[in-house]
Structure formats: C-alpha cells, structure tokens
Amino acid sequence: MSKASEPGKPGKPGKTSKPGKTTKSAKSAVSAKSAKTAQSPTPGRPDLPGKTTRPGATGGREKWGPISIGPIMARPGELTRLELPFSRLATGTWASIPVAVLHGKRRGPRVWVNAVVHGDELNGIPIIRELVNDIEPSRLKGTVIAVPVVNVFGLIKESRYLPDRRDLNRSFPGSERGSMASQLAHLFMTHIVAGSSLGFDLHTGSDGRTNLPQIRCDLEDPVTAEYADVFGAPLNLHAPLRGGSLRATAAKMGIPVLVYEGGEALRFNREAFRVGYEGVRRVLERLGMYESGLPPVTNSPARSHASQWVRARRSGLCQLTVRIGASVKRGDRIAVIYDAATQWESVIRAKVDGMIIGMTRVAVVHRGDAIVHIASVD
Ligand SMILES: [Zn+2]
C-alpha cells in the first residue's frame, strides 16, 4: 500500500468515496425491549472514574450537545452508526471500522466498549450487539461508544494479527505514519479513547485456549478495582500493564480500562456472553448512566494477584480432568497425557492451590505447551 494511493486520512476519505457517510438512525425499534430495564431511579455516582486526572472529560459543566466522532456528528438522544475509514483494500474500496454511538439525552460519562482487537476473538461482538440493541439513548446519561470490531482485517482472516503480522494490542498508541497496526491503533486512540473516561476491551482466550470469564485490570487502583467488582465476573485478576497494549496506553492518559476475557477464539460461548453483557450493564448502572434491571451480584468476584500456566512435560494426547472455574488444591490431578500407541501415561498435577481460569482446547500437546492456567486466589 503506497501512501500516494491513499487520498484520504482516516475520517477524511477522498471525494470519490465516502465510507464515513453512513446510516444514522433514531432508536425506535428497540424501545420496547429496553423498556423493561428502566424502573427505578438510577443510583450510584453520576460521574466519572479518573475524572480528576483524565483529559477531555465530558462530565464537567460544559453544555451537553452533539459530539463528533470521525466524520459524523452524533446528536443527543440518538443512536448514530458510522464507519471510520481506515485503509483502502487492494480492490480500491475502503476498509472501515464500524462504530455505534449511543449518545444519551442527558449529560454523563463517556465510555467505550470494543471487541476484536485480536481478530479471532469474537465473543465481544454479540455482547456489543446486544448492548446497542438494548440501551435506549433517550434514557441514557452520557455516551456509550461501541466498536464491535477493531481489527477488521484479522476478523476476515480469522487471525489474531493484522496482515503485517503485528499484534494490534502491542501497537498502541500508534502513529499516523507507522505500520498498519500502528496506524490502526492511532485511529482508535484519536477517535474512541481520547475524551472517554472508561473503556471495556473485550477478549477471549487465544487460539486453542479457553478462558473463564474474568476481568484483568489494575486491582491496586481502587476505582478500577471497584468497577471490576461491580462487573461481577467470577474472578478479577490483577494484571501488570503491558507496553503497547490498549490498557497500558489508556492508563497513561488516566483512563481505566477493564479487559474482559471470556471463552475461546473463533467460537461463541454463551456463558462468556452472559457475564460480559451483564458486567458492562452493571458498570454503566454504577456510573449512573443506565439502569441495568439486573439483580445485584450475589457472590463478589474472587481476586487474584498471581497466576501460572501448568505446562506439558512431554508431548502426547492430553485429557483434562478438571473443568474451567473449578477450585483445585496443590497436588490435585488436573490432566493426563498419554501416548496413542502405548499404555504410558503421565499425570499432571496442580502445583498451587487456586482456581482454573484457562485451559487448552486441543487434544494433541507438545512438550512445554501450556495446558491449564491456575490463579492463586487472594
Ligand atoms: Zn485478546
């Protein structure tokens, strides 16, 4: 792709093509469905986490009116769909990032929810689809920016990566003239992250692995930890910031991000959907933005500051003997690896007490392969 062939910057496509000029629709079709959720006054704080440190907050005293995202203006009380043009395909047509802006009628925080930073991690798509379907902008305080697919190229190729083989989640904040991953990261930072006060980054286990629904975040930050608890996944795992990730980059701007992990790559998982959808709704309620209509979480999430993968000591066929989410004690049998041709077998045991938060989904494993992920619960 040569720069000369790119007539338009993101958000400013060339005159001959206008991928950003798209549908804009009021939300009448979903009002009946969402009516069931709003029955009592909204409790919780009406303002933002990270408010004091975050640039560009919308929770101040400024007038509440339309906001512009990329080439489009979103009016209060409406759902606005737009496309952020990113790059031309070899065909000459544009590849764009789809965005839905739920801009509330009344003032409130601006949060984003994104999925598919890794192109093969799909569980966030139905979560976002249902959020956009169920939230009625006329009853929303603040703004929810929904980005169901960030890594459009990865989704099409069923690949974690971009065509340049880079990991988008190691490419933030990116730059306008860097690699493709870098430019995509920059586009996302410019139009979605900047000006927001909280983000949800929805992931799944990587290829061949499944994850227990869980939040990964900075549990040392009390505000972030509180929202993780409100989210209500079975486990909150303290995760150090990793350079180049969306979460680390947003953190530098004072914007907390809850990374949600649930299920496996290239598959939908009903439980990962339910926990993720309800979690976002609960946090929006806590922010004072929108009633969830959900009962409070009865079991507060377990917390962990340490986790480890148990690896195969030898290649073979792997049969797991624990289920995801199970509690194990040190020494418990968690898997058996055996040969196809002989009666040899090797029992794999837990090395620590903890909760099973991830596991392989493949039967054939090689020496050193990660088999079971165990979190030590605080
Ligand atoms: Zn991921």
Structure description:
The protein is an alpha+beta fold and 378 residues long. The chain has two domains: 3-286, Aminopeptidase (3-Layer(aba) Sandwich); 304-377, RNA polymerase II/Efflux pump adaptor protein, barrel-sandwich hybrid domain (OB fold (Dihydrolipoamide Acetyltransferase, E2P), Beta Barrel), CATH 2.40.50. The chain has seven helices and 19 strands. It has helices at residues 31-35, 124-134, 152-157, 180-193, 222-231, 246-252, 270-286, and strands spanning 24-25, 67-69, 72-74, 78-88, 94-103, 106-115, 141-147, 198-203, 209-217, 235-238, 257-264, 302-311, 316-320, 327-328, 333-338, 345-349, 354-360, 364-365, 370-377. Helix 2 packs across helix 7 and helix 5 crosses helix 7. The longest helix is centred in the last third of the chain and has 17 residues, at 270-286. Bound molecules: zinc ion. Zinc ion (ZN) is lined by residues 118, 121, 203.
Number of strands: 19
- Spell the H/E element sequence: EHEEEEEHEHHEEHEHEHEEEEEEEE
**How would a textbook summarize the main sheet?**
5 strands, mixed, barrel
CATH C-level label of the largest domain: Alpha Beta
Distance between the termini: 50 Å
Helix count?
7
**Shape call:** globular
* Rg (C-alpha, Å): 22 Å
Q: What's the average pLDDT?
A: 87
Counting structural domains, the number is 2
Residue ranges: pLDDT <50 for 5 or more in a row? 1-60
In helices, the fraction of residues equals 10-25%
CATH superfamily of the largest domain: Zn peptidases
Which sequence of strands runs across the widest sheet? 9-10-12-19-17
Beta content: 25-35%
